[in-house]
Automatic annotation (TrEMBL):
EC number(s) per entry: 4.4.1.15
Natural source organism: Desulfovibrio desulfuricans
Family (UniProt): Belongs to the ACC deaminase/D-cysteine desulfhydrase family.
Lineage: Bacteria, Pseudomonadati, Thermodesulfobacteriota, Desulfovibrionia, Desulfovibrionales
Swiss-Prot/TrEMBL cofactor(s): pyridoxal 5'-phosphate
Protein name per UniProt: D-cysteine desulfhydrase
Length: 336
């Protein structure tokens, strides 16, 4: 696949580390060897997986003459933080449309990513009720800005369209080379699965590289059939964009919905355990919405024996630790 045909900004300058987690693996019984790919170390304010996607999305925006970026997410969105951060770096205005998925959860004085929106000088924040048609809400804002003489460019939530997913097609290619150079092989990969772009791009890249390694998504928002269909559809859209003739078996798309808990961004005891355990064994911070719930899924799959003894399992860490500071009470209560 020729990804060089697409413009990008060069935000990803080197491969992110692939590291073993010996103490974490031991804490889970030592039967499974767990590794981690550290996309939390990607450049950008606070790091995280969206930098790979925005590398392509913002390049496309600039190629189209945009001077303003509009995107959306939840009230503590890591994606919104990173989109704003890269827009600032590029000298672009950035407007955020935040979906209050949990009624009453938006507080302009809160910590975490919400604080960073203000620190980075967001151009405007529009808060809409949960369940709002987000593309329509962003288009309304784009029309208003265009009428005022701006040239807006809309990036969907999570940068999860075919352009953004290219970043994770590239990540799969990167991993293939790292496995060769480091002499490590994996029996399974676990990825967070939310807006679908990371999961879809990564799985497409793995299939296109003939890696023959199962990839399991741990869903953080939608029911299993809906999430798997979203990933499957985006894989096809991305393959069409690249012009790649890749066989995409429907059964290759797996996204558990067992670890969402009461809803998107709502904490679970298993998430708090996962975040705390990784911090106290490996000094690595997860986030409470995506990577924390995904790691709680990995832990459960190890404990249930779904991931066989002796297997080498790679966890894709998508970042997001700045959001932890909006969940202090959750963690303090779990420690008590």
């Amino acid at each position: 696949m020729n990804l060089a045909q697409f413009p990008r900004r060069g935000y990803v300058k080197q491969p992110t580390p692939v590291e073993p987690l010996p103490s974490f693996s031991k804490a889970l019984g030592g039967k499974v060897n767990i590794w981690i790919k550290r996309d939390d170390t990607l450049p950008g304010t606070g790091g995280g997986n969206k930098t790979r996607k925005l590398d392509f999305c913002i390049a496309d925006a600039l190629a189209r003459g945009a001077d303003t970026i509009i995107t959306c997410g939840a009230v503590q969105s890591n994606h919104c933080r990173l989109t704003l951060a890269w827009a600032v770096k590029e000298g672009l205005d950035c407007h955020l449309v935040l979906e209050e998925r949990v009624p009453g959860s938006y507080n302009p004085q809160s910590s975490g990513n919400n604080f960073l929106f203000q620190m980075l000088g967001v151009s405007s924040v529009t808060v809409v009720p949960g369940g709002s048609p987000m593309l329509q809400e962003m288009q309304k804002l784009a029309d208003k800005l265009a009428a005022a003489g701006r040239k807006p460019y809309i990036i969907p939530g999570g940068a999860s369209n075919s352009i953004g997913a290219l970043g994770y097609v590239q990540c799969a290619q990167e991993l293939q080379q790292q496995m060769f150079e480091q002499g490590c092989n994996f029996d399974h990969v676990i990825v967070p699965s939310g807006s679908a772009g990371t999961h879809a791009g990564f799985l497409l890249g793995m299939l296109a590289c003939n890696m023959n390694i199962p990839v399991t998504g741990i869903g953080v928002n939608r029911k299993k059939p809906v999430q798997e269909q979203a990933v499957f559809d985006l894989m096809h859209q991305t393959a069409d964009l690249i012009g790649a003739a890749v066989n995409i078996p429907r059964e290759a798309v797996v996204a558990y919905d067992d670890y969402v808990g009461p809803g998107y961004s709502l904490p679970t005891a298993a998430m708090a355990e996962a975040v705390t355990l990784l911090a106290r064994t490996e000094s690595i911070l997860l986030d409470p919405v995506y990577s924390g719930k995904a790691m709680s899924g990995l832990i459960d799959l190890v404990r249930k024996g779904v991931l066989p003894a002796g297997s080498n399992v790679l966890f894709l860490h998508t970042g997001g630790s700045p959001a932890l500071y909006a969940y202090e009470d959750t963690f303090r209560k779990s420690w008590a």
